Amino acid sequence: MANKLLTQHKKNYLKQKSGLHNFIKKFEEKTVTGINAMVEEANDETWKEVECLSCANCCKVMTPTFTKADLKRISKHFRMSEKDFYNKWLETDKKNGDKVNRIQPCQFLNVEDNKCSIYEIRPEDCAKFPHFKRKPFADYSYIHIQNIEYCPATLKFINKLQEKIDAKFEW
């Protein structure tokens, strides 16, 4: 099921990639009146149609950024020092210095059922993924451009948001 979903997602993404990237980048130049309400509507509609456990591609091909608080909380859960936790599972991204998973899929993903083994204490980045409602919306355009390639929910959300904006707003 997940493979079929992801194959279809990739086809849809590649067909729409240029137009959707251009749409998302417009937020860097223009302010859309009423954007927060449209984001809320598109968010609610998306989650009525998408079930993350049918996919979990984010956990399979992406990595969260682990904050200092994440390291402290999760290492404590495993009764490890932060240093030992880091050395066992994480590395520092050479481009930006973020603490990220060393491997993919995520070491905490149960690939049998696509569930997170540390869901209750997961990294903040995972808890907020795919970051639809972060404000101001325009400040997170780069995140949506990054996520849309891997996350079927993000593709659906951006399509729904574009429909709403195109119906109410002239660029």
Largest sheet: 3 strands, antiparallel
Mean pLDDT equals 95
- Discrete helix count: 8
Q: How many β strands by DSSP?
A: 5
Question: SSE string, helix = H, strand = E?
Answer: HHHEHHEEEEHHH
Low-confidence stretches: none
Query: What is the rounded Rg?
Result: 17 Å
What does this entry look like structurally?
Strands 1-3-2 form a three-stranded antiparallel sheet. It has a two-stranded antiparallel sheet with strand order 4-5. The chain has a domain at 64-121. The protein has helices at 2-25, 35-49, 57-61, 68-77, 82-89, 124-128, 141-148, 152-168, and strands spanning 65-66, 90-92, 99-101, 109-110, 115-116. By secondary structure, the protein is mainly alpha-helical. α2 (35-49) crosses α8 (152-168) and α4 packs across α5 (82-89). The chain is 54% helix and 7% strand. The model has no long low-confidence stretch (mean pLDDT 95). β2 and β3 (99-101) form a beta hairpin.
Name the features.
mainly alpha, globular, two-stranded antiparallel ribbon, single chain
